[in-house]
Structures are given as structure tokens and as C-alpha cells.
Design a protein that fits this description.
Keywords: Hydrolase, Nucleotide metabolism
Distance between the termini: 39 Å
Strand content: 35-45%
CATH class: Mainly Beta
Largest sheet: 4 strands, antiparallel
Number of domains: 1
Order of helices and strands: HEEEEEEEHEEEE
CATH topology: Deoxyuridine 5'-Triphosphate Nucleotidohydrolase, Chain A
Number of strands: 11
Structural class: mainly beta
Strand order of the largest sheet: 1-6-9-8
Protein name: dCTP deaminase
Number of helices: 2
Pfam families: DCD
């Protein structure tokens, strides 16, 4: 079951959902819109290695926007830090952004219960696309879970800004 906008507001008011900064104007009928932060990271090596750290370089999105290029993976982030100890957060791109040919989350829309931080976005455009810091780029839905809850305490907890993959920290068998 996905929470309605009214229930998102109630859960935020009583602390079951945390959104910082929060604006009632970003609440939808069953989701909360999140905005694109001002920094992007791109990997600097042509071949990425799942068993090793992969270096990135940071790019600032200027006031006039930044044109994203097809075939490139950009790691962005939400301005809002979002999370819950009670609900499973799910992040997807907004349909208006999808209609411009931008993938916002390639394969990782599910957040863990207990995570709180800025969300890293995996941005990939179908064709050249100018994006702007502060634009509403995605939406987070909150789903009810059943059963015992073990809160997330992993490596991305408290994330601020774009975060590169840390799969190399032991998640890949030798």
C-alpha cells in the first residue's frame, strides 16, 4: 500500500517520515517531489571495476543549466534529505522529466527503512538535455511494509551530495 499525499503530510508532521527541507507545494496525490541538487559527479575512467573504488570528478550545475550528454552516467543528488523508520521509500523520475528522455534512477528506486539522507540519482539522458539545479526531477513514494523491521545502518547513511558506488567494500565475492 502506497501512502496518499494527505498521509505523507500526516506522517511527516508526526515524525514517521523525515523530509528536510520540506514544502507542502511538493506533495502530490501519492508522492513527494524532490529537486535536483547543484552538484553532479561523473566517473573518470572508461572502464568501471566493481571490486575497486572508481574515481569521479565533480561538476557544478551553473545558473544557466548544464547539458547532459547521451552515453554518459551522471550521479546527481536530491536537495531534500528524505527517509523513514516506518515506510519503504521508493524514488522514481517524474513523468514530465521522463517525457524529456531522462532516466533518473536506472535500477535502484528502493530505499531502505531507516535510511535518511540525500538520495543519489543515476541520471542518463536519451538525447542532449539541459538540466537545472533546483528543478523538480523525481518523486518519492512511501510504501507500507509488513513484518519485523531492521533499520538500515549501511555505508550510505546520512548521504550528502552524489555518492559513487561502494560495491567494492565487500559486496562482490572474490
Amino acid at each position: 500500500m502506497i501512502l496518499t499525499g494527505a498521509e505523507i503530510n500526516e506522517a511527516r508532521a508526526d515524525g514517521r517520515i523525515r523530509i528536510d527541507p520540506y514544502s507542502p507545494r511538493q506533495v502530490n496525490p501519492n508522492s513527494y517531489n524532490v529537486r535536483l541538487g547543484a552538484a553532479l559527479h561523473v566517473y573518470t575512467e572508461p572502464v568501471l571495476d566493481a571490486r575497486s573504488p572508481n574515481p569521479t570528478r565533480e561538476m557544478a550545475i551553473p545558473a544557466g543549466g548544464l547539458v547532459l550528454q547521451p552515453g554518459e552516467l551522471y550521479l546527481g543528488h536530491t536537495i531534500e534529505a528524505v527517509g523513514s523508520d516506518h515506510y519503504v521509500p521508493l524514488l522514481e523520475g517524474r513523468s514530465s522529466v521522463g517525457r524529456l528522455g531522462l532516466w533518473v534512477q536506472i535500477t535502484a528506486p528502493v530505499g531502505d527503512i531507516g535510511f535518511f539522507g540525500q538520495w543519489t540519482l543515476q541520471l542518463t539522458p536519451v538525447q542532449p538535455l539541459r538540466v537545472y539545479a533546483g528543478m523538480q526531477i523525481g518523486q518519492i513514494m512511501f510504501e507500507v511494509s509488513r513484518g519485523h523491521i531492521d533499520l538500515y545502518t549501511g555505508k550510505y547513511q546520512g548521504a550528502q551530495g552524489p555518492r559513487a558506488s561502494e560495491l567494492w567494500r565487500g559486496a562482490v565475492a572474490p
